[in-house]
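== Folding the chain ==

***
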Amino acid sequence: MAGHGYVRTDASVERWNRMREDVYKHFRFTSKASWISLTGLLFIPAGMVWFSAQQDLKWSFSGKRKGESLYRIAPPAAEPTED
């Protein structure tokens, strides 16, 4: 059974941890940070809402059998051609 003592501290790990904990104190809204914030807070959620609105009421899984279309309003069947 190894490890009967305290964990040895590494100065570089402690320095990295301190930097990670204090990053909010040195944060500034630069143009890069602004674009990242807008992307994460506006563009991605807006894209998800748009995609959801496009797919809403398009599909119906209830009571469908194998081979039936999952569209709520099924596309017209192809008419046979006369040869």
